[in-house]
Amino acid sequence: MRVWYLVRETLNNIRVHRGDVVIGIVTTAFALACFGVFLLLYLNLQHLAENLQSGIEVIAYLEPDASEQVVSEVHQRLRRDRAVVEVRVISKEQALRDFRRHFQRDALFLEEGNNPLPVSFVMKVRSPESVGEFVERVKRFSGVQHVQHSQEWLDKLAIVVSHFRLGAMVIGTILAVATATIIRNTVHLSLYTRREEIEILRLIGATGRFIAIPHVVEGAMLGAVGGGLSLVLLKVSFESVKSELLQAVQWFDGLERSLTFFPVPVSLLLVLAGMVLGCGSSLLSVRSLINVRS
Amino acid sequence: MIRFFHVSKFFDRCAALHDVTFRIDEGECVILSGPSGAGKTTLLRVIFGMEVPDDGQILVQNRNIARLHARDLPYLRRTIGFVPQNFQLLSQKTVYENVILPLIVQGVKRSEARRRVAATLQAVGIDHKQAIRAGVLSAGEQQRVCIARAIVTRPVIVLADEPTGNLDEELADEIIALFHTIHAQGTTVLLATHNQRVMAQMRGRVLQMRAGDVVSDKRMVT
Ligand SMILES: Nc1ncnc2c1ncn2[C@@H]1O[C@H](COP(=O)(O)OP(=O)(O)OP(=O)(O)O)[C@@H](O)[C@H]1O
Ligand SMILES: [Mg+2]
To answer: What is the pTM of this model?
Structure first.
């Protein structure tokens, strides 16, 4: 019977000041959605960075006048290297053919007998972390003139990603405080609406906890519904941005695969975060009710 | 049951209770009388733990009210029925809902609670209005609902603050008869009033207050 009473009280409170509750929910939803945008950008950039890194290629160019023997020596060493998954040799002739195909007219002056292009090796590397080390090693091979790889660019991307993480944390904290304040205000209003009843409950020996429960439940519900609503907002805007991006950027096949929404656990976490926030901030505002004389 | 030792309570340097000492034993029926502003409400409120005395000690059922942890206060209050001067009913809720509330708070089973509410409403003579919102009742009816709410939990002490305050004589007599019945069932009653008529009708002891002091303590002969 107590439980029923508490449920009824909670629903009744919400009904009586439903305007405030709606405002509370909407603001919570927007605050959580703002945070969600950052989290989403961060997760997607990180995902993108991983996708790019898994396709990392290292190209080693030999000196143009390297002998057959040097070529096969380097080839052997690369094949034996544990960091290398796959090696492909691009011979001088192949390089010239590729070159001609790319720059048809300008390449006319390159003649068969006077090929300045070096032999090169294109390698797939096992793990992205060891790329830097591997590149340094290959640079010291005799006969190798130049090693090219995309690590520098990826490092920059990693820095951007970490900035986003920091941004998400800072913005998340600010918005959490803002949301907590809003929920607290809503709970304060509901305490005010119920002040008569609270006074009477004290008179008949209700404990502070019993009096506080409907408000804490209200705060938690507010936070959870706000969290759910923010998920809907995020999902809708994510889908529309995604379809626009896919239309605009047609040269990158991996894009569709790289763009992902929150996985289910993260989504639930967002709702849970809203709930915890709501619960916590209403606890702060009913703290004054618990264990107080009057 | 209730003991005051040199209890004082000040509001802005003005003493609402001034060095008050008395004791009330189990099963007594005590009238607290005195002119308006004498400190009757304040005295009842300190017993109920709603005000903390500035000086002195109060024992209620052998518990020191001033030292009682706020966490434990509700449990002591459950053994005391309080009828406030200004009713304090939930005007939007029905008579039934108002009276069952203390039982809900104490976690009494639904069937038992229903039975007790029905019996209590009948005892105070308001059972025919149980489905009506408390706010629309007459003053006398609200007074009865208040008393029903205070006694539905079968408290050992009932504190009533001016329970006949805004009733006509006939209704006041009925309410007084009601308190006689409550007292007759073994409950300790402390009733504050400045109504001479009520004092004349109540049998028992009269504590006379004036300006924060208990000026006399007499046993009425009937
Ligand atoms: N919360 C308060 N703040 C300031 N003064 C108070 C407060 N409560 C009571 N008083 C003062 O204490 C004195 C006693 O008040 P109290 O209400 O106890 O009188 P009373 O005997 O119940 O009077 P009445 O018969 O009119 O109800 C009064 O002078 C009143 O103004
Ligand atoms: Mg009074």
So the answer is: 0.74
